[in-house]
Description:
Blueprint: H1 2-19, E1 23-29, H2 37-49, E2 55-61, H3 77-89, E3 99-102, E4 106-109, H4 113-123, E5 131-139, E6 143-151, E7 157-172, E8 180-195, E9 201-207, E10 218-226, E11 231-238
Parallel strand pairs: 1-2
Antiparallel strand pairs: 1-3, 3-4, 5-6, 6-9, 7-8, 7-10, 10-11
Amino acid sequence: xxxxxxxxxxxxxxxxxxxxxxxxxxxxxxxxxxxxxxxxxxxxxxxxxxxxxxxxxxxxxxxxxxxxxxxxxxxxxxxxxxxxxxxxxxxxxxxxxxxxxxxxxxxxxxxxxxxxxxxxxxxxxxxxxxxxxxxxxxxxxxxxxxxxxxxxxxxxxxxxxxxxxxxxxxxxxxxxxxxxxxxxxxxxxxxxxxxxxxxxxxxxxxxxxxxxxxxxxxxxxxxxxxxxxxxxxxxxxxx
Length: 239
């Protein structure tokens, strides 16, 4: 009888994990963009105010502003491509910064903090299709390794594993923000994408890029998306 109670208890825990809402905020930004600092500030305030177990903020620094004169040290073509995929989904003729994408389903100007809070509140009423359990997370000098296990249907879905710097201050010498000291937060520095196919667990290792310094605090973020780029679940842990 006790064994049955224990089994039911763990089943209930699993169901609750699956029902927990997740809101992923993906900000596309650049240190070379003069209208981006207010959006970066808004993303920081959201992280500080909202439950980090259910709200996951990430700032992807794109590279198409670099030509103006300031090369954003966090920018990657990969992140620009990610934004372009959303552009195709939203049938946009162009991409822009600062753009905030919510759960892969809709977008708005990233500095529109009032609208962001309203939309987050609405998404927090929805349930996630998948939950992720992390284990054996290890941070070494040059890498982060971990095991993951996913609950829920994984058909036609994929996993994004991202390393994020909590915050960094940069003195910008050129470009639209020249002679300004910028505070950036939730900075994505590397990403690995894994097709789940029919495998709901595994082990991964992420290489810590050279842009990360010893003073940085890192977060590991895992997000599950479907073929339509919509978020189905996610989790994050500070390293």
